[in-house]
Amino acid sequence: MSENIRKCALCGLAVEIEGFNVQTTEGLKHFCCAGCVSVYRLLNGDKIKE
Ligand SMILES: [Zn+2]
Description:
Order of helices and strands: EEEEH
Strand order of the largest sheet: 1-2
Shape: globular
Bound molecules: zinc ion
Distance between the termini: 31 Å
Radius of gyration: 11 Å
Helix content: 10-25%
Number of helices: 1
């Protein structure tokens, strides 16, 4: 069961809350919080598919 733990694509912390996901050209990325999503969007805006 513990294999379901995901890590934040930005900071590497365990993702405990579902919902902070971003579809990118590299696949679906998971993030731990809205802050990490915001930073990822700023840094990788060209990879985000929406
Ligand atoms: Zn994070």
